[in-house]
Amino acid sequence: MLREYLTKETMQHADKMEDWEKAIAFAADPLLKKGVIEKSYIQEMINSVEANGPYIVLKDYFALPHAKAGKGVNEVGLALLTLDEPVDLKGNPVKVFLVLAAVDSTSHLEALSEVSELLMDEEVYAIFLSGNHEKLLNIIEKGEK
After folding, report:
1. For the chain, give me the number of helices (H) and strands (E)?
2. Between β-strands 61-63 and 57-59, what pairing exists: parallel, antiparallel or unpaired?
């Protein structure tokens, strides 16, 4: 399931970002270009953090930007941005932004469960932080065979 959403086309790497808002927008750009999300969804994700604080930071250096399911989302999608230098997200340094676009409250749960499993493995988590997308894609492929 995860490999359907997280592909070379939806993964990006950058040295650094000016701020967390730009990082979220940059991370979501592949989904915008594919028509998975509307531009309004990017602002919804930013507004959600502004309203609710840094709840999207799930683990040290790892954030899962998302907003209300279905609002500005055309289909389920994931996009990954890894950074060499962490960006401050309301007091939390973040190097990995995994954007989640959900059309409803359930269709994305299997992919999210797979992401959770990957994050619990410290070796895999280190690969996320390293920004090695090729290794990450290999792990995602192996996890589904």
Report:
1. 6, 5
2. antiparallel
- Which amino acid is present at 61? Y
Residues 12-57: pLDDT tens digits? 999 999 999 999 999 999 999 999 999 999 999 999 999 999 999 9
- Any idea which residues carry the catalytic annotation? 66
* pTM for the whole structure: 0.92
CATH number of the domain within which 60 lies? 3.40.930.10
Expressed as residue numbers, the domain containing 57 is 2-143
Total domain count for the chain?
1
Of the candidates 138, 128, 137, which has an alpha carbon nearest to the alpha carbon of residue 58?
128
